[in-house]
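User: Structure please.
Assistant: Input sequence and predicted structure:
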Amino acid sequence: MRFDVLRSSILSLAVGLAALGPSGARAEAVTVFAAASLTNAMAEIETGFEAATGHDLAVSLAGSSALARQIQQGAPADVFLSANPGWMDALEADGLIAQGTRRDLLRNSLVLIAHDAAAIPVEIGPDMDLAAMLDDNRLAMALVEAVPAGIYGKSALESLGQWEAVGPRVAQADNVRAALALVAVGEAPYGIVYATDAVAEERVTVIGTFPADSHPPILYPVAGIAGREGAGQSALLAYLHGAEARAAFARQGFAVIAN
């Protein structure tokens, strides 16, 4: 009888330990809402975070505008990683950001891509005739009034005096990865995406980089969601600011902002 009791106690202890991560904290399910332009980096971070902490990470990827609206409607996100400060501002104004958790994490740049691998590089500026390059075709962009990559792209084209001629020829996609796909498969000969998106797709060619002063700085803020505080949220925020995540972002072409 004593042996059975001892065996039962050992089994209970083993089950309890299995529920703990490497840090000794009880494992939790954590959900991060992240901009679609972070797809490749977040795949790497998901694996690393789970191995390092024992928590289970669910990554939801979409345009920052769509994700922010879902959070406003009560979607169970623990952490939000946006490709635009404006959508983070909107959540903060609604009282949906956990106090003291918001930080700017990454920077990106904006590029013009082509489907044709032999496309000639262009100098992006006021003298560029993008409308002539398009001919009767379309320019792929993310939604220009809602998705950060589209907002930045429209701003850049306006500042360079290109938007009036090019605007009517824009094929708008739900997010920047969808715009990238239109160029990758040849549905559009040119597109405007983040530099990091172009790195992730071998079927497109970068033919020019937009001047940094042609659009607002491309910043990626991260924050915890109010009401979702806990060990999982804290662990993920700490991991995103740590060396392993920073290396993963850098491998995808992001400029990591110093803590």
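Confidence is low (pLDDT under 50) at residues 5-19.
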